[in-house]
């Protein structure tokens, strides 16, 4: 039990809570998210989901990374793409080197295949990116980016895209045009109704299919590591269920 707890803490520090032998309330919450998104897209083609938020630090990268892990564990060939070029975090979450990644390919510096980190976990590939302060909206508007998504869809069952928060950049709406749906991650008590409605309007104006929202960072003395607490009610209900 102590060894499992130490492993969970180490994963939590990297913001990865889900793996195939995880039997925790947080893992069950992500299984629930996986199931809900599955029923929203039962087609045979590759399923592309965008994760965004209204402001930074609401936990969108954490939710996106763990959702990707959950689909990979479920046997889906999964790719997670870091499109938050201003503040990339996927490389840190999965403890890898970005090596230029998506940004290098969009600049014409590297071939796409060179930028993908293969089999970081079973069934899970990663397309990270290096951070940049340059104006990146045009890159995502480009036919080259559209071609990247279309090419990748041929090789995967699930593509997860982590984008910049709507409140600080406009890329999420642009990228949503290449996805089946968008999940908005909301940090509990971090944003107000006006900010959330702005995010909703921005995505709707872009023609995005908004799947729904994930409420994150709830801290009610639940199951938490550091400042993160996921689906606190799941912890209570899960323990009650396990105890009969």
Automatic annotation (TrEMBL):
Reaction catalysis annotation: L-tyrosyl-[protein] + ATP = O-phospho-L-tyrosyl-[protein] + ADP + H(+)
Protein name: non-specific protein-tyrosine kinase
Residues that span the membrane, as ranges: none
Presence of keyword ATP-binding: yes
GO MF, one annotated term: non-membrane spanning protein tyrosine kinase activity
EC numbers on record: 2.7.10.2
Top EC class of this enzyme: transferase
Domain AAA: start-end pairs: 59-166
Pfam families: AAA_31
InterPro entries from the UniProt entry: AAA_dom, Bact_polysacc_biosynth/exp, P-loop_NTPase, Wzc-like_C
UniProt cross-references to NCBIfam families, sorted A to Z: eps_fam
Taxonomic placement: Bacteria, Fusobacteriati, Fusobacteriota, Fusobacteriia, Fusobacteriales
Superkingdom: Bacteria
Record keywords, A-Z: ATP-binding, Kinase, Nucleotide-binding, Transferase, Tyrosine-protein kinase
Family: Belongs to the CpsD/CapB family.
Gene Ontology CC, one term: plasma membrane
């Amino acid at each position: 039990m102590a060894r499992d707890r130490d492993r969970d803490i180490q994963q939590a520090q990297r913001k990865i809570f889900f793996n195939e032998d995880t039997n925790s309330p947080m893992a069950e919450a992500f299984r629930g998210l996986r199931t809900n998104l599955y029923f929203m897209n039962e087609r045979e083609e590759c399923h592309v989901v965008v994760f965004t938020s209204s402001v930074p630090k609401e936990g969108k990268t954490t939710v996106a990374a763990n959702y990707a892990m959950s689909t990979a564990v479920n046997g889906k060939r999964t790719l997670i793409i870091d499109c938050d070029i201003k503040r990339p975090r996927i490389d840190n979450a999965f403890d890898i080197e970005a090596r230029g990644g998506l940004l290098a390919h969009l600049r014409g510096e590297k071939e796409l295949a060179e930028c993908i980190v293969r089999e970081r976990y079973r069934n899970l590939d990663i397309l990270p990116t290096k951070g940049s302060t340059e104006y990146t909206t045009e890159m995502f508007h480009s036919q080259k980016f559209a071609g990247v998504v279309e090419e990748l869809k041929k090789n995967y069952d699930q593509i997860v895209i982590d984008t910049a928060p709507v409140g600080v950049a406009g890329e999420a709406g642009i990228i949503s045009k290449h996805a089946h749906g968008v999940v908005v991650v909301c940090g509990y008590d971090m944003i107000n109704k006006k900010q959330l409605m702005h995010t909703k309007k921005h995505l709707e104006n872009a023609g995005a299919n908004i799947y729904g929202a994930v409420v994150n960072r709830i801290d009610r003395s639940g199951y938490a590591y550091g400042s993160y607490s996921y689906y606190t009610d799941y912890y209570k209900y899960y323990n009650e269920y396990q105890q009969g």
